[in-house]
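Quick one, T. Sequence first:
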Amino acid sequence: MPAKPPADSARVLHVPATRTFRCWTRELLQVAEMQADRGDLRLAADLCEALLGDDRIQGVLRTRTQALFGLQPTFEATSGDGRRRSRVGKALEQGEDWWQLCPVDESKLFFTWGILLGVAVGRLEWFEDRPWKPVPGIPGTYVQDKPRARMNHGRLTPTLKAWHPRHLRFDGEANVWLARLRDGSEEWVTPGKNGWLLFTPYGRTRPWSTAPWRGAAEWWLMKHRAMEYWERHGEKGSHLFIESGENANPDERVRIGQQMADAGQDAVTVAPFGYKGNLLESKSTGDLYDKQISTGNSSIAVLFLGHANNAEVKDANTGATAGETIRYQIVADDAESWGEFAHDQVLEPYAEANYGDPELAQWPIYPVPKPDEAAQRGAGLKAIGEGVQALQAASDRVNTDKLLEDNKIPLLTDAELAAKKAKEPAPPPAPLPPAPAPDPTPTEGATDGQ
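Structure tokens:
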């Protein structure tokens, strides 16, 4: 039986036009949270798009996506006979069906929205989007060819297509997700069943509430306000202050002020008698903005990556090695979330359309490299040893054995220590002192040769 797309997915839909420009304030951030709390994600999605314009947020999200999609997945079957499992696995790996099902560029976009907002929406497109063509002899009239199913070596290979999540909302009364179409109507989103996809890495119950966009928004707004104020501060790094006399003429003061405003054109201003000029320069108040920006960057990095730098991690290990452990845990969790989503909503429809059984869908397994545990242990032991030596040098009353025991360093018992010393070879004998040099002083009765 030839493969054919599912009946409820045999159509081509297009994401509505999307415009997200807004001037954000703290009050508008609160409105976005309140609207999201009732399932309307329009403002929250617009805010997330603004967050994606921040250099640090872009960087940490790119770190997450590249860490996952830079890996080559393998595929593992859980059911079906060996022959059919082998066919599906070969189609995904050797036939390159996987890369058509989940192209890397769309997968990264889908994953980014899921990590930032808590939910990403899209479609599994079974048909190619055919171009519009002009109708000969009828100016201004266009027709579109009949959609053609996406095929690869005789197999149906639909492709993942991300939609902007501002067109998604959750109806709490009916407990359903709804997507808004171009004509303004809404359609139920049944993940993996009617052509729709829904990636919720934090769970499907109010996924936006635990997503990091809420924690990042305040830092992002503070950062960009600090950047704006810092720029204004730089424009007014110095100011010429004119002190007038007691009997200054008001008209004269206005004229002097206008001359100073035109100082870019008239480089020299001559003040009347009784006026004194002073150059007032700003001090180090600009450092405040630098601190706000750096604090915001560190907090955003902690939010998405678990730590900002070595100083954020306090452990027996060094910050770098402990940070590597955190990185592994985050990437492993991302790989598990994405693998489950791809299996349930992409590979099951693919297996059913091509092999007649959704149970043949395989699980994508990403080989997330584990941190070098031996290197971490060695670095930790080195740090403990250096610390114990420093404390021992500081005071003779430091109980070094107790410190080593508290850090789970095995120590020899008194008997084991005595036996070890008994087995040690005797130290080599001390070298003999060198023979004394001959005395150059002449002996008694010696002559000088005369």
